[in-house]
Amino acid sequence: RMHTNPSRGPYHFRAPSRIFWRTVRGMLPHKTKRGQAALERLKVFDGIPPPYDKRKRMVVPAALKIVRLKPTRKFALLGRLAHEVGWK
């Protein structure tokens, strides 16, 4: 039983870019000027927008899953999570 109306919020983002943005916001002191300035510098996109689609893509070897994670470690894919919460 609920004592609140779920249509009044809090609303959850469905797009992977917004889920990631909200996750990063939770790691920053977003209620301070310094945190707000850091959030304004963060750019997140779904796909590759026009200014960046012509640039050469690169792989960061130090960030690869096989290098960073232990074989037994559990992980989640952001696209799968977004699809489960209603992203098309």
UniProtKB/TrEMBL annotation:
- What is the recorded name of this protein? Large ribosomal subunit protein uL13
Question: What keywords is this UniProt entry annotated with?
Answer: Ribonucleoprotein, Ribosomal protein
Record family assignment: Belongs to the universal ribosomal protein uL13 family.
> One Pfam family, short name please?
Ribosomal_L13
Gene3D superfamilies the UniProt entry points to: Ribosomal protein L13
Q: Which GO terms describe its cellular component?
A: cytosolic large ribosomal subunit
| GO MF term list | mRNA binding; structural constituent of ribosome
Its GO biological process annotations read: negative regulation of translation; translation
* Stored SUPFAM superfamilies: Ribosomal protein L13
- Protein species of origin: Platycephalus bassensis (sand flathead)
Q: State the gene name recorded for this protein.
A: RPL13a
